[in-house]
Amino acid sequence: MSVQIGPTAGTAVRVVQLARTYGSGPQAVTALAGVDVEFQRGTFTAVMGPSGSGKSTLLQTAAGLDRPSSGQVWIGDQELSRLSETRLTKLRRTRVGFVFQAFNLIAALTVEENIQLPLRLAGIRPDAAWLREVVERVGLGERLHHRPAELSGGQQQRVAIARALATRPEVIFCDEPTGALDTQTAAEVLALLRSVVDEKQQTVIMVTHDPVAASYADRVMVLADGRIVRDMPQPGAEQIAEQLAWLGRRPFATVES
Q1: Structural domain boundaries in the chain
Q2: Residues 6 or more apart whose Cβ sits within 8 Å of residue 256
Q3: What is the crossing angle of helices 85-95 and 111-122, to 10°?
Q4: Which residue, 86, 126, 157, 164, is the most exposed by fewest CB within 10 angstroms?
Q5: Contact, 36 vs 5, CB < 8 A?
Q6: Per mean pLDDT, which range of 3-12, 13-22, 105-114, 196-205 is the poorest?
Q7: Are 43 and 219 in contact (CB under 8 A)?
Q8: What's the CATH class of domain 11-247?
Q9: Using an 8 Å Cβ cutoff, are 17 and 71 in contact?
Q10: Residue 158: what are its φ and ψ, rounded to 5°?
Q11: What span, in angstroms and rounded, lies between the C-alpha atoms of 198 and 184?
Q12: How far is 83 from 79, CA to CA, in rounded Å?
């Protein structure tokens, strides 16, 4: 019988011995190999690693988008494996926000309708004052009645961030949120994510391959072969790049901080 180990006070997300394997037999691929990590409330974490390291799988399983092969995932005080698909969907709609590289906006909806979509899907009555604040924060007050095709890439990503904030989620998961943006627009989006952590005590967990993007975070966690091989306070873009290069030249055995 497995032991249910709950999160500590102040923890937004916790994973315990998290494993994810795709396929079976000789063709099986291990994406995560027993990951243990906590993400504290009001912090910004960058998750990095080479292609195939497990960083996106960690994001998806921690967010409840994918079921792990074994282990536990906690969002606040809720352990996800105990939830039915219906309850898990409800949790994702109300307690978790998502921002992806591809924006994932609905082309037929206006900016305002895209932002309010999670609320409508969850059957939650919009908080007009909070939505006004969110729209003001992302700087799209004059674009509410435009459709995504009428916006720049940076504006579309701002809509995606506003949509993620609409339900006041406990944690926002971002998968390469600046990967499709130019340098200046990426900096604006990262500054926005940084501000929601500093000013609203949101929790942001961001997968990125970019040391400059990671430099906006409080903490940088590096994965390789499905394991955490580095977990450290954010040391700056240049040092992040140097350490990633150094890690690429050595065996992955232990977690270092």
Answers
A1: 11-247
A2: 229, 230, 231, 232
A3: 140
A4: 86
A5: no
A6: 3-12
A7: yes
A8: alpha beta
A9: yes
A10: -65, -35
A11: 21
A12: 8
**CA gap 39, 8 in Å, rounded:** 10
Q: Which of 50, 74, 38 is nearest to 219 (CA)?
A: 38
DSSP state of 211: H
Structure tokens at 194: 């940084």
Q: Rounded to two decimals, what is the model's pTM?
A: 0.89
Tell me whether strands 44-48 and 29-40 are parallel, antiparallel or unpaired: unpaired
Distances (CA, A) of 134 to 159, 161, 227: 10, 9, 36
Side-by-side strand order, sheet with 171-175 = 96-100, 171-175, 204-207, 44-48, 219-224, 227-233
pLDDT digit string (tens) for 2-18? 444 555 568 999 999 99
The string of DSSP letters for 6-39 reads PPPTTEEEEEEEEEEEES-GGG-EEEEEEEEEEE
pLDDT digit string (tens) for 53-80?
Answer: 999 999 999 999 999 999 999 999 999 9
The residue behind tokens 């399983």 is: 61
Residue written as token pair 């975070």:
217
Q: How far apart are the first and last CA of the chain?
A: 32
Reply yes or no on whether the pLDDT at 48 is more than 50.
Answer: yes
Strands (E), the chain: 11-22, 29-40, 44-48, 70-75, 78-79, 96-100, 171-175, 204-207, 219-224, 227-233
Percent of the chain with pLDDT over 90: 74
